[in-house]
Amino acid sequence: MSSKGKVKGVRTGTATITCTSNATGLSTTCEVTVGSVMLDQTEVTVNKGKTVTLKATVYPSTLEDKSVIWESSNTKVATVTSAGKVKGIKAGTATITCTSDVTGLSATCTVTVTSTSGSRSLEGDDDELTGIEENVVAVEPFDVYDLSGVYTSSMARRS
Predict the structure, then answer these.
(1) For residues 140 and 13, what is the distance between their CA atoms, to the nearest angstrom?
(2) Residues 118, 130 contacting (CB under 8 angstroms)
């Protein structure tokens, strides 16, 4: 606290501020509560199509209304429900913000969404990563030769 009565919250909790008059010696007190919103994770990685749930804690604990609002900075990368469930939409980074309805204080978590690797996606967009095209039906004949160059058979292949 400054000599002019300016109070600055340093950490979550409650403090009693006392003001005493130099002239009369009389004093008065004021209880100040510093609030905050904290998330259980500040950085998280989630695969595309998967989810992770963030947990918010709103201080002070004496607040009757501890409701929060969840927001994503980039819903094309990650979405978030009103319960803090984050879903990876596509590879990239988004910031999830949790804000107390009562105090307006907030906390953030950086979410990195990674593409799934090693398996084909049901969404049909893996050709961007693998070069494999979906729904290919054309069939062409081709010849098979052994390592010494001797013809062994004729087969049909997909192109």
Answers:
(1) 75
(2) no
Q: How many CB atoms lie within 10 A of CB 26?
A: 8
Tell me the chain's radius of gyration from C-alpha atoms. 30
Residues in the chain: 159
Give me the residues of the chain with pLDDT under 50, please: 118-138, 159
The two structure tokens encoding residue 85 = 């469930």
Check: pTM over 0.85? Answer yes or no: no
- Cis link prior to 60 (omega < 30° from 0)? yes
Find out whether 88 and 50 touch, Cβ atoms under 8 Å: yes
**Cα torsion through 37, 39, 44, 47, rounded to 10:** -100
